[in-house]
Amino acid sequence: MAKIPEISRMKERSLTEILSSPVPKEIILGYFKQNPNLFWEAMELSTTNQRPQNWRSCWIIFHLMEENDARLLPKVSDFIKAIPGKPDGHQRELIKILSRMQLNEEQEGELFDICMNIWESPKLIPSIRMMAFRFVMKVLKKFPELITELDYLTQDQYLDSLSPGIKNSVNRQFEQIKKSVKA
Question: What predicted TM-score, i.e. pTM, was given to this entire model?
Fold first, then answer.
């Protein structure tokens, strides 16, 4: 088992080395708060194919970012373009980041299409599909006229691979949106 680095010794290591080691959440987030320049390095690493540092960078960004964080605005389109082809966990972390940003119409449309493709892929792990579904629901709240076109999202073919709890959550969320439109 790898030894957890002490904060004082982390300064001697590169970001890639730090993200390659098991470090407790509180320690790594504290270290990033003490060293804000690492946030920029994490942003650059977040869209690369360097695993596992890329998705860990996304995880750190998500935990340190503010809602619609100005530091991330220049990277939003890069984050969106990076989603396809990445492993499930990395896709999930990128969508989590983007879900906290105010996207322009084009970016929102691109991410919506990506999330629809993820949701419509029952072989993907439930956590990424659920994150994609949440973004789709966010867009449906904004554009309720799409709800009738997307009624098929809760068909069995999309729900069968999910646990009973997640199925109920999906159905409940979709029904709430449909009711809010009727009201």
Answer: 0.85
